[in-house]
Design goal:
Layout: H1 8-16, E1 30-34, E2 54-60, E3 63-67, E4 70-74, E5 77-82, E6 88-92, E7 98-104, E8 128-131, H2 133-150, H3 157-174, H4 185-201, H5 218-225, H6 229-240, H7 244-262, H8 267-273, H9 279-290, H10 294-299
Antiparallel strand pairs: 1-7, 2-5, 2-7, 3-4, 3-6, 5-8
Helix pairs in contact: 2-3, 4-6, 5-6
Pfam family, one: HTH_18
Keywords: DNA-binding, Transcription, Transcription regulation
GO molecular function, one term: DNA-binding transcription factor activity
Length: about 300
């Protein structure tokens, strides 16, 4: 299972050993950085994980970028759009690395346009754009203007910074998306399986009788991952030798056993939390797999 999503607070603690005073402002948060301070031969590996903030990176250098179930090979320059729904990382292929990145929360754009609707932030869309030298310079200029603006005392500077983020988005959409370099069949299946497991585990543990798991069927998981359900089923079978339904059922049973043994909730409440709208359906499901009724299991 992948690590929990990195919060913007943990980003500052791990990278800069401090938390900005304005981090919790209602207007949201924005900042811009030189990538040079975080990459190179002494940099820590970047975990394959989600973040709970948005990030746009200009990456200069030879890298493999792992994004969702894709790998993109970068020989010179690339622009990467990361969103909180999709895990990613990149692997430096040499020590000659440079670039820029900006981070921002969803609240930063509240009432300033629906930036999430653009393809660069869609979970199933291309998020890595290879750049030629001219495109790289154009993107670098935008980041340079961000650095200049954030250092000013201009009262509306964050409106300017929002417009520069949109300028990055629109510039990228005018570029040709990078062609994904397909992973081996096995690696692609493993990455899809990892995304599925992360989504499944995100619904647990159930900590309140008012908490209900929302994703229950293979189709619901596939839709959330923006892939066809047949692709999900094949990938999980190749990676785990189990069907999607078997994996979901096994995790539900694991949680059901824990709730029956370690809470005083009634069985109807537990059934509802696990997505069973009708109690008999939960009893039949549990008995079919455990060969005991929920009540008998609880009383053993």
């Amino acid at each position: 299972m992948m690590d929990k999503a990195q919060s913007i607070e943990s980003f500052y603690k791990s990278k800069l050993n401090c938390i900005p005073e304005n981090l919790q402002k209602e207007m949201g948060h924005f900042n811009v950085f030189m990538l040079d301070d975080f990459v190179g031969c002494h940099a820590k590996p970047i975990p394959y994980s989600r973040k709970d903030f948005y990030k746009i990176s200009l990456i200069e250098g030879r890298n493999n970028i792992y994004y969702a179930d894709k790998t993109v090979v970068i020989d010179e320059f690339a622009l990467l759009f990361a969103n909180p729904q999709v895990p990613y990382t990149w692997e430096s292929l040499d020590d000659d690395q440079s670039g820029f990145f900006c981070i921002f929360t969803e609240a930063f754009f509240q009432q300033y346009g629906n930036f999430k609707e653009y393809p660069v932030f869609k979970p199933g869309a291309d998020a890595v754009y290879t750049l030629n030298a001219d495109q790289r310079q154009a993107v670098k200029n935008i980041f340079s203007r961000m650095f200049e603006e954030i250092a000013t005392d201009y009262v509306y500077k964050y409106d300017v910074l929002r417009s520069l983020v949109f300028e990055l988005i629109h510039s990228a959409l005018k570029f040709q998306p990078a062609q994904s370099n397909p992973l081996s069949k096995q690696k692609a299946s493993l990455r899809v399986a990892s995304l599925f497991i992360e989504l499944l585990e995100r619904q647990f543990p159930i900590e309140s009788p008012r908490q209900q798991m929302k994703l229950r069927t293979p189709a619901e998981f596939a839709n959330h991952l923006c892939i066809h359900v047949n692709h999900l089923n094949r990938s999980l079978k190749e990676a785990t030798e189990k069907t999607t339904t078997q994996l979901i059922a096994a995790r539900i049973l694991q949680e059901a056993r824990a709730l029956l043994k370690h809470t005083d909730w009634n069985i109807s409440e537990i059934a509802w939390c696990l997505g069973f709208e009708e109690l008999p359906h939960f009893i039949n499901f549990f008995k079919k797999n455990i060969h005991q009724t929920p009540g008998s299991f609880r009383n053993v």
